[in-house]
Structure formats: C-alpha cells, structure tokens
Amino acid sequence: MSGEQEGIRYRRAQSVTRAEEIQAVKQKVRKSQPDKPIHKPRDSLLSWNSGFENFTGFVNWAFLLLSIGGLRLLLENFIKYGIRVDPVQWFYILTGQDEQGTEHPSIVLILYSVVPIIFCLLTEKALAVEIISRRMGMMMHVVNLLVLIFLPMVVIHYKDGFSLVGASTVTTLYSVLFLKLWSYVQVNLWCRNARQSSNNKSLRRQSLSYNNLPKDEDSNKNHKDSKDDLSNTERLLVQYPDNLNLRDLFYFLCAPTLCYELNFPRTERIRKRFLLKRIFEVLAGIQLILCIFQQYMIPSVKNSLIPFSNMDVALASERLLKLAIPNHLAWLCMFYILFNSWLNLLGEILHFADRNFYGDWWNANNIDTFWRTWNLPVHRWALRHLYFPLVELGYGKQVAGITVFFISAFFHEYMVSVPLKTYKIWAFMGMMGQIPLSNISKFMERSYGARMGNIVVWASLIIGQPLCIMMYYHDYVITHYGQSLLEDYGHV
Amino acid sequence: MSGEQEGIRYRRAQSVTRAEEIQAVKQKVRKSQPDKPIHKPRDSLLSWNSGFENFTGFVNWAFLLLSIGGLRLLLENFIKYGIRVDPVQWFYILTGQDEQGTEHPSIVLILYSVVPIIFCLLTEKALAVEIISRRMGMMMHVVNLLVLIFLPMVVIHYKDGFSLVGASTVTTLYSVLFLKLWSYVQVNLWCRNARQSSNNKSLRRQSLSYNNLPKDEDSNKNHKDSKDDLSNTERLLVQYPDNLNLRDLFYFLCAPTLCYELNFPRTERIRKRFLLKRIFEVLAGIQLILCIFQQYMIPSVKNSLIPFSNMDVALASERLLKLAIPNHLAWLCMFYILFNSWLNLLGEILHFADRNFYGDWWNANNIDTFWRTWNLPVHRWALRHLYFPLVELGYGKQVAGITVFFISAFFHEYMVSVPLKTYKIWAFMGMMGQIPLSNISKFMERSYGARMGNIVVWASLIIGQPLCIMMYYHDYVITHYGQSLLEDYGHV
Questions:
Q1: Which residue would you say has higher pLDDT here, A236 or A378?
Q2: pTM, entire model
Q3: How confident is the model over A104-153, as pLDDT tens digits?
Q4: In contact, B105 and B166? CB cutoff 8 Å
Q5: What's the whole-number mean pLDDT along residues A287-310?
Q6: Which residues pair with A352 in a beta bridge?
C-alpha cells in the first residue's frame, strides 16, 4: 500500500537539497525553453494520491438518473396499460359502496364509536365524584376498551358488505380511539391520585401546623407569597375534575396527539395561508396516492401472483423490485400527507401548538432510531403510557421495551389483517423481523459508519413493505378466490 | 408570506414582558401538574419555520433507489433476453475478423501509419540541417498530414472487409496521430525559430561587444556565472535538434499526451501495485463495457428502430430513456478506463509524470466547463496548438474559439461517420447543439444556481448521446439494409 500512497516521485528527487536545487533550476530553465512546455508532474484526480474529494456533482447525477428512470417507467406503464386512473372507482372505494348493496356498515361502526367515548367519560365522572369505587371504575374502563378494540374484529369478520377502505378506516379509527382513551383514563387516574395525596398532605400539614408554631414569620410570609403567585397562575390552568366534560374530551379526540393532558399548549391564531396549503396538500396528495395505486401497484401486484406461487425466484424478485419503487413513493406521500399535511391541518384548526409529529427519521442510522422518530404521536404515547408506567411498577427496562414492541406488533397486525379478513401473520412477522434487522443495522453502523446504517434503514423500508404486501395479496387471493383462479392465470 | 414565516405564536405572547413572565410561570406550573404534560409549542420539521435542513439521508436514499432500479432492470433483461454475452463474438469483433474473409484491412492500415511518421521525422531532419527550404518543408508536412487524415476515409469507404471496431480503431489512431504530429511539427518550428533568433542575437551581440567594451567587470562576471549555471542545467535538458530521432518521436507517440515537448517530466520508478491495478481495471472494464453493449444496448437499439421510423413519440421516448441509462453507464466506464486506467498505465510504463488527464467535470456547472475539463489532452492541445497560435497571429479570441470548436466537431464526425460509412451529420449536429446548450446551462446556472447548471450538464450527457446513437443506428440500417428490413420488422 505504502508504495502507492507515496505518489509520484521524480527522478533525482530522493537526493539531497543540492539535487532539489538543480531540479528547481532545471524546472525554471525548462520554462524558458523554446518548446513552450506545459507538462508538469501531477496525479490524476481519481488516483488515491491526488487527495481530491469533491464529488458533489454525482449527487445531482443520482437524482437526475432517478428521475429519468422514473420517467421511463411512467412511459412504459402508460404504453403497456393505458390510463388506469378512474376517479369514478375512487368514489366507490372511498365511500365503501360496492355492487352488493346499499348498506354502509363502516359508517354505522364509525358512528357507533361515540358510545364507548361517552361511556368512558361517564365512568370518569362517576370516579371523580366517588359514586363508584376505584376498582369498579377501572374494571369498567378495561371492559370498555377491550370491547372497543375487539368489536370491529368481530363485526367485520361476520358481517358482509365492508369495502377494504371502509374496513381499514374503521380499524384505524378504533385503534386511535383505544390509544387516546387509554391515555385519557390514565391521566385522569394520575390526577385523582395527586388530588388524594394532596388532600392527605394538607390534612397532615394542618395537624402539623398546630404542633410547631411559626418560628420565622418573614420567611413564612415569603413562602406564602410565592404560593399565592403559583395558585394565581394555577387558576389560569384547568384543574381536575373541571376537565371532565364533553367539550374537553372531544377536543382531545380531534387533536393531533395520542397523549391526553389538561392544558394543551395553544396557538394564538389560525394562519390562513398555512391552512390553505395543508388543505391543498391533503386533497392533491390523496389523488396522487390513488393514481399510484391504480396505475402502478395494482398491475404489479396482480402480475406477481404466478411467480410467487410457483416460487420462480428470478421472476418473483423482478416483480418485487418493480413493486418496491411505486410502493415506496406511495408510502412517502402517505407519510407526508398524514404526518405533515393532515396533522398540521388539524393542529391549525384546533389551535394546537405542538406540531412535533415526526423526527428526522430519514437520517436514522439504525432501525431503532427510525422507529423512535418516524411516528412521534405513537412513540410518545408508548413512552408515557406504557414504558414509563411499567418501569415505575418495577419491571425492567427490557421487559417494558418488549411489551411496547408486542403491543405495536399487535396493532400493525390488527390494522392489516382485520380489513383483509386474512389472519396471516405477515405484518406480525414483519414487525418481528425488526429485531434481527435492528441488530444488523447497528452492526453496519458500527462497522461501516453511519452512512451504511442509514442505507440499511432505507433498504428495509423500500424492500420490506412490498414483500409483506405481496404475501398478503397472494394469501388473500388464494383464500378468497381459491386455487382455481391461480390455475386460470397460469394458463394465460 | 410573512404571515406564515413568523411561525407559531402563542396566546398572550404579544403582550408585554409581564405577559411573558406569566407565560414562564404558567409553563413552570404546567410542568408540575399531576397530568405529566409532554406537549410544548413546536413546528414540524418539514415546515418552513422549523429551519430544519438536514436531509443527508435522502442522498443515500437516491443512491439506494438507483441501485434497486438498476438491479430490477438487470433481472428484467435476463428474464426477457437470457444471457446475450458471448465472448466468442468479442474475439471476432475485437480482431475485426468476420465471415467475409481472412483479410485484415484494419491491421494493414494500422501498420501503414508508420510511413507518415517516418516521413514527418525525415522532413524535420531535413529542415533542421537546412537541406530543404522552410516553405518546402511546411508544404511537405501539410500534405503528409492531410494524406494521413484522409487516407482512412478513402480506404474504409472503398474497401470492404472492415469490421466496425477495426475501422473505429483505425480512425481513432489516425486522429490521434494527426494531432500528435501537428504538435511535433509546430514545436520543432518554434525551436527552429528560437535557434535562428538566438543566432541572430548572438551575431548582433558579438558585433555589439566589439563596440562597447566592458565597463563593470564584476557585474559582468556575475552575469557570466549565472549564465554558466543556466547552461550547465541546460546541458541536462535535450536541446533542438538533438531531439530529432526515432526514439524520442516514438516515446512522444506512445506517451499519454498530444502536446510535444523536448523534456517531458519523468517519474523516478514504476509503482508495481499501481501498474497492476490499472492493468486489471483495463481488462475488467473492457469486459464490462462489452457486456453492457451485448446485453442491454443492442436489444434496446434494435427495438427502437420501428418507433423511430414511425415517429411514435411515446414509444420512441420510452426506448430512448431505456437506452439512456446503460449507454450512460457504458460511457462512464469508458471514461474511467480510457482516461484513468489506460492513460495512467501508459504513463506509469513510460515514466511519464504528468497524469493530468481530466478535471472534475462531474462538478461542471455549465457545458463550457464540462468541455474544458473532461478531456484534458485534447483541450490542452487545442489551446497550445490552435487557440493561442491563432490569437498570436492577430485573430480575435472569438474566431480562435470557433475554429477550435469546428475542428473538434470535424473529428467527432470523422471518428463516427467514417467507420459507420454513414455520412449523416448527427455527430456534427450534436456538436453544434452544444452552442445553444451552453447558453441554456449558463442561463440555468445564473438563474437557479450552480446545482441547476450541473444538472443541465448531466442531462445533456445522459440524453444527448443515446439520441445520436439512435439516429445513427436508424440511418445505418436504412442505408445498408434498405427499407425492406424496416417493413419486415413492422410485420413482426
């Protein structure tokens, strides 16, 4: 290695200063020669010795090549399939209307969700005024939440007439409600506990103050002053149990957060330009995602059926990679629309000031960091309402971490399997796959630097999702239309 | 705009410091509340107000997506065409052997190139010893060089049995020889002129020294000393006409430069590891390029024939973009192999120390910079032997620039049209297209920043070349196989 690293050495350059002098004079003389010399000893830029490191142009190159490749795929797709985008179909998909009937079981289920909400609020009110015992109240909450989460599973499974989008909306809504009500119940529990202990304390303090009379009047007065100041500002804040009303609960249910608290930070005014931009992004983004689905993903997924069944590795990989790119783009759009446009829109309308909905997961150097940063509402809920409470109860951090992970895996599975009515474990497996993946990405980060870790994260995002989608599609078709369809396809 | 730029303001924040105090106290009180608040006023990272700008992860994303897209195309290609790589065919292509006979007209032409070289050297020798007049010598050189450049044109056009690769090798070799001999002749002319003027000067000095006798002996002695020093080192350098020998000429002809000078900078030793790496790169790189050609470019180009003839814009564009990416990759490989591996290999063997074969053209922000940096041997030749001499002759810089541009266009056309025997002007038009393109890229650079200029340069590289290739291929097929083939294709 050293032989190459030393760069180009020149004749006589190794001899001492006398030689160098000669060299310098020679160079000077060479310059004055009549043959107008232009060559001088230099390394090529791409040689290691040159020390040249400016390759920023290749970043532009990569993005340009990516755009050109994308444009070509777009053209190829249009030539092959024509225009598949059909807004009429969107209407049917989005409203959950299909040929089978005019029932709207999804809408019924969505409207029904008010029931467990009211039930939860009433239970809390009963607990606040101590009509029912704490044990009884907690029992009622647990039953209410369990019914909330299992009701859609049962209804969607046994009742026909659910569209895929309708059923997905229902399971998403019920999942979110479950998390929000859990937070609501737990925060109110904290407040009740605090009220009780402060009552106990003030009782104790009263009994104490009778025993030890004030020694230092001045300090006591100061203390009282600052206490007054505190209670003055405390009066600006909503205090338990004043928060237990429908208005406050519905504000929380609409607010872009899963964590309840009594006094959310508020913005002063609604920025109209900001709001209009977010509304436009949501409307345009949904159209874009639907276009990507109809035009790119559905044909790719359909074409993948045979290779996946026949275990044709080359063809299946090709299909997988073909699906990967539009799927990934749709996911990116979905992320932006949901976490930036939609949640900011909600926040703006509701004067909700905390817009910290996602971190810079695109720079994540390992899978753990990605999971910690891409979905902050869920991440913060999991920390505040599952991880820390478990740790406080005396469980180890590892146990708490694993619990969070399994609950997360359950909800992933719930939001996919229930609408599809395909109780396969691909989403669950996908979540489980995160554990070895996390170790791989950390290993890559340690061994090959942060860049390599980031690439592993991106690769798992780009490849992992379409793999699960294909698995589900394959199983969905097999279970619902049987082997016969597969054979029909095989003959084409 | 200002409404959005100001970010999220909070209730009462506009009131004076008293309000801010309250806010601070309130925040403190909120922290101590039993509901464990976690929300605080913040903007989303992707909002303008957040000021967040770290998107380095997306650079990795782009490169990864590019690799995945490339991998898919690779798989698709193998599934569609099977393995097209056929080393046996390479042998035929590279040796220029084909079915028509065992003649090797390319090799004959390559060997014949010694004749103009020797003729050039003899003419120079004759000029040096003043056997022939300068006018006569220059006439002989001009005729020799013109014959040199037009001979392959005539022979390849009228003689059958040239393979495409053989004919390309011949035209490339003769082009390089033309430029090198031009440089050789011009440098020797400069030396002769210098010798003549110094003879005249020394004659004049002799006649002068008789008239004015030395007044200051000491200064004169000093002067003589430094002159002695100079002539000592000058003795280390080769002086005209000692350079006029076969060894020196052939060293120059083999050396990785187009600009002749009497004393090239030399390296001290051959770095064996460096040399082995370059040899490996050349061998592996040629295989890679041939694979790209056989497996990707030839099928794409063949499939483009019908859409280009029928002026089917969508299909033709799709074909063009499909061809663009392997073509561009092949071009990048070719650049690296030729300019880094091959020229460094030659330089290392010949102890040639100036390895400045290319600049950082990948960062070029406009087309002009690209042309000035991507091919330094030709660029330096054009400056030294065409541009500056023309300027010195009193022509304007613009005239000189245009002349360089046209000679460059001629050689591009020469090296493409002659081997293809298709005297269409696509390569020439491609060169002409650089003028408006240069203006566009400069406009983009000025209006949208350096990044945009760089993107225009890359786009012209990625799209421009395959467009020319398709034009040539189309015309080649039409002129050599006629309309009938096209119609045959049409029926398939």
A1: A378
A2: 0.74
A3: 788 888 999 999 999 999 999 999 998 999 999 999 999 999 999 999 99
A4: yes
A5: 79
A6: A266
**Lookup: tokens for B33:** 């509340």
Phi, psi of A266 (to 5 degrees): -120, 150
Q: State whether A68 and B36 contact (CB < 8 Å).
A: no
Residues of B in contact with A321 (CB under 8 A): 68-69, 71-72, 75
Longest CA span, chain A: 111
Is residue A242 domain-resident?
yes
Catalytic residue selected from A351, A412, A480, A491: A412
Count of structural domains, chain A: 1
Q: Is residue B246 part of a domain?
A: yes
Is the backbone of residue B44 left (phi > 0), alpha (psi -120 to 50) or beta?
beta
A158, A287, A416 from A172: Cα distances, Å? 19, 20, 9
Is A412 known to be catalytic? yes
Among B56-70, B79-93, B444-458, whose mean pLDDT is lowest? B79-93
| pLDDT value at A229 more than 60 | no
Has residue B156 been placed in a domain?
yes
How crowded is the C-beta side of A165, counted as CA atoms within 13 Å?
Answer: 12
- CB contacts, 8 Å: B315 with chain A: 79
pLDDT tens digits for range A146-195: 999 999 999 988 887 777 788 888 999 999 999 999 999 999 999 999 88
Domain of A113, in residue numbers:
105-198+238-264
On chain B, the residues whose CB falls within 8 A of the CB of A356 are 42, 44
Q: How far is CA B264 from CA A339, B166, B235, B276, B443, in A?
A: 64, 32, 15, 24, 40
The residue-averaged pLDDT of B82-96 equals 69
* DSSP labels, B57-125: HHHHHHHHHHHHHHHHHHHHHHHHH-----HHHHHHHHHT-BTTBS--HHHHHHHHTHHHHHHHHHHHH
Question: A230 CA to chain B: closest CA distance, Å?
Answer: 7
Name residue, tokens 């006798």. B213
Residue window 312-371, chain A: list those with CB within 8 Å of chain B: 314-315, 317-318, 321-322, 324-325, 328, 336, 339-340, 343-344, 353-360, 362-364
| Alpha-carbon span A131 to B10, nearest angstrom | 39
User: Locate tokens 């039953």: which residue?
Assistant: A143
Average pLDDT value over all residues in chain B: 81
Question: Mean pLDDT: which of A209-213, A349-353, B232-236 is highest?
Answer: A349-353
Portion 137-196 of B in contact with A at CB < 8 A: 187, 190-191, 193-195
Please, which contacts does A79-88 make with residues 24 or more away whose CB atoms are closer than 8 Å?
Answer: A79/B314, A79/B315, A79/B318, A80/A299, A81/A295, A81/A299, A83/A295, A84/A294, A84/A295, A84/A298, A84/A299, A85/A290, A85/A291, A85/A294, A85/A295, A86/A294
Q: What are the φ and ψ backbone dihedral angles of A354, each rounded to 5 degrees?
A: -90, 105
Domain-embedded: residue B297: no
ipTM passes above 0.90: no
The Cα B41–Cα B47 span in angstroms is 14
Q: How far apart are CA B311 and CA B303, in angstroms?
A: 14
Is residue B268 within 8 Å of residue A14, measured between CB atoms? yes
Backbone angles phi, psi at B430, to 5 degrees: -55, -45
